Amino acid sequence: QVPLLLLSQHDGLADGSVLQVSMTRARLVAAVLQYAMGSVRIRRFGILYPEDDFGKQYAAAFRSEAERRGGTIVGVDAYSPLTRALSVATLKRWRDNQHLQAVFLPDNVLSAQAVAHVLQREMPDITLLGVHGWESIGGQDGDHVNGVLFSDSFYSGSTRPGTQQFVERFQKAYSEMPGALEAQAYDAGLLAQHALEA
């Protein structure tokens, strides 16, 4: 019965005295879909994912959550994580034949940037959706990209006072920027502290 605070992103690990305090894959997907479907009114999605465990788990989570919210998956396509080849023809076919509105890409910022540039140039009506660390895609040095939505568990550049204080204290202590794992560990520590004080 000793409480265990987990920082894993894997879904479904919480049980009894095991508490999952991190942003799981399902929560990140739910966050981006809540905005895309609720605010932007997107309903028809394609999924492009790297054919590895990470990509497969995110693709499954996205499909499940989109369908649960009443969305439609018009196509799913995997690619080798080594080549990162993008089939523009596939996206155009989904758009022209299946009325694709957005494509979900659970991959790193370099892959996302490449896809975002293709979409902006050839299919500016298609929104790119993703998770994790795409802040730099917003554009630097005139390299601005539109039509990108993503969710993340932590943003060190946030203007929220609590986040700014945490980032400053972390940088002072460790001489580097905190990431999502450090932020979630800090939140877990605060949770434990409040529980002990109560």
Descriptive key words:
198 residues; alpha/beta
Strand order of the largest sheet: 4-3-5-6-7
Choose one word for the global shape. Answer: globular
Low-confidence stretches: none
State which percent range the strand residues make up.
15-25%
Q: What is the CA-based Rg, rounded?
A: 19 Å
**Major sheet details:** 5 strands, parallel
Mean pLDDT: 88
Number of strands: 7
What class do helices, strands and sheet pairing give? alpha/beta
Q: How far apart lie the N and C ends?
A: 18 Å
Query: Percent of residues in helical segments?
Result: 40-55%
| H/I helix tally | 6
Topology of this structure?
Blueprint: E1 4-6, E2 18-20, H1 25-38, E3 44-50, H2 53-68, E4 72-79, H3 88-98, E5 102-104, H4 109-122, E6 127-131, E7 148-151, H5 161-174, H6 180-197
Parallel strand pairs: 1-2, 3-4, 3-5, 5-6, 6-7
Helix pairs in contact: 1-2
How is this structure best described in words?
The chain is of the alpha/beta class and 198 residues long. Helices cover 44% and strands 17% of the residues. Helix 1 packs across helix 2.
Summarize the structure.
With 198 residues, the protein is α/β, with parallel strands linked by helices. The chain contains 6 helices and 7 strands.
